């Protein structure tokens, strides 16, 4: 039988790959630098291969070291999944769950659903990380997060996803704007509108443009905000109009402003301009059933909080 390295040794290699510094890697693993250095040397001896090029100025992993560090992340993730799977077999959704959420969802959805989730799963320890979608996906793939609550569609690579509900876009403008006099606004009317959007990197920007079939024209790129609250203030100041998701409106984002909303129409039927809110997790994880249960519980919590939501049941599908 092979004398396989321990999970601890693989953890040392991963930390070194991420920090490129023995001291910082040791701090991340809560060990001394000498302990980590000895662990890496023992790993190289067991494998009979060089994994790290050591210089006075920096630490560089060899090509083999980089390859093995990537595979070690998957290995440690699977080992953690097995522990949590065994725990979930007796008590579903108990223990730690590291959830990544995008900023155009978390402040509008989580306050409404977390109290109910805590009551239903009192042993669940939910750790939240708010960031842009691309960075959350990277952290999920590196094993730093377990589950994502994001807007779909999004090019996510080797992930599985579960669509929870559709989040409609509505036009937001000042009450004295010309479009405010209409009962609904056609998508064609937005082609030349002074449309204010979030800056690049926010998937809501791309979803809004795609849902309304609008190109990212230079005029729209002239103004950009970093949050939905900033967008609302810009509209309230008369700088233009914007598209807001129903989630933010139901959470009261327009409170205290002179901004009103109008539904969108494509000229043939109302609606059709929406993003899909869903969960995403690493493909092949043994916790897929647990994550599906979390999604179903989240939808149930939304209904109990009287959030507007279609009656359709959650549908699991590939990302």
Question: Which helices and strands, and how do they pair?
Answer:
Elements: H1 7-19, H2 22-29, H3 33-47, E1 52-54, E2 59-61, H4 63-90, E3 95-101, H5 106-120, E4 124-130, H6 133-141, E5 147-152, E6 159-174, E7 185-186, E8 195-198, H7 203-211, H8 218-221, E9 224-225, H9 228-236, E10 241-245, H10 246-250, E11 259-262, E12 264-265, E13 274-282, H11 288-304, E14 315-318
Parallel strand pairs: 3-4, 3-5, 7-12, 8-9, 8-10
Antiparallel strand pairs: 1-2, 5-13, 6-10, 6-11, 6-13, 6-14
Helix pairs in contact: 1-2, 1-3, 1-4, 2-3, 5-11
List keywords for this structure.
alpha/beta, D-Maltodextrin-Binding Protein, domain 2, elongated
Provide an overview of this structure.
The chain is of the alpha/beta class and 319 residues long. 41% of the residues lie in helices and 23% in strands. The protein has helices spanning 7-19, 22-29, 33-47, 63-90, 106-120, 133-141, 203-211, 218-221, 228-236, 246-250, 288-304, and strands at residues 52-54, 59-61, 95-101, 124-130, 147-152, 159-174, 185-186, 195-198, 224-225, 241-245, 259-262, 264-265, 274-282, 315-318. Strands 3, 4, 5, 6, 8, 9, 10, 11, 13 and 14 form a ten-stranded mixed sheet that branches. A two-stranded antiparallel sheet has the order 1-2. A two-stranded parallel ribbon has the order 7-12. Strand 1 (52-54) and strand 2 (59-61) form a beta hairpin. The radius of gyration is 24 Å and the shape is elongated. It starts with 6 loop residues before the first helix and ends with a strand.
């Amino acid at each position: 039988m092979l004398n396989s390295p321990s999970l601890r040794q693989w953890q040392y290699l991963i930390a070194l790959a991420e920090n490129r510094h023995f001291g910082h890697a040791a701090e991340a693993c809560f060990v001394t630098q000498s302990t980590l250095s000895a662990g890496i040397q023992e790993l190289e001896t067991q494998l009979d291969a060089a994994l790290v090029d050591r210089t006075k100025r920096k630490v560089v992993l060899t090509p083999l070291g980089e390859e093995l560090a990537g595979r070690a992340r998957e290995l440690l993730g699977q080992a953690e999944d097995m522990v949590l799977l065994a725990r979930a077999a007796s008590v579903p959704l108990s223990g730690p769950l590291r959830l990544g959420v995008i900023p155009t969802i978390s402040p509008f959805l989580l306050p409404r659903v977390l109290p109910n989730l805590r009551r239903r799963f009192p042993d669940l320890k939910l750790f939240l990380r708010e960031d842009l979608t691309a960075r959350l996906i990277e952290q999920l793939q590196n094993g730093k997060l377990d589950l994502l609550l994001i807007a779909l569609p999004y090019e996510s690579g080797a992930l599985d996803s579960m669509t929870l509900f559709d989040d409609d876009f509505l036009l937001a403008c000042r009450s004295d704007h010309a479009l405010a006099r209409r009962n609904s606004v056609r998508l064609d009317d937005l082609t030349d509108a002074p449309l204010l959007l979030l800056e690049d990197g926010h998937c809501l920007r791309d979803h809004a443009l795609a849902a309304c079939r609008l190109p990212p024209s230079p005029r729209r790129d002239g103004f950009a905000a970093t949050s939905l609250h900033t967008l609302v203030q810009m509209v309230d100041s008369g700088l233009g109009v914007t598209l807001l998701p129903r989630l933010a409106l139901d959470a009261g984002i327009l409170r205290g402003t002179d901004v009103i909303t109008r539904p969108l129409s494509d000229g043939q039927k109302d609606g059709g301009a929406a993003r899909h809110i869903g969960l995403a997790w690493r493909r092949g994880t043994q916790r897929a059933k647990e994550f599906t249960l979390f999604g179903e519980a989240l939808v149930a919590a939304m209904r109990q909080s009287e959030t507007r939501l279609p009656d359709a049941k959650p549908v699991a599908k590939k990302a």
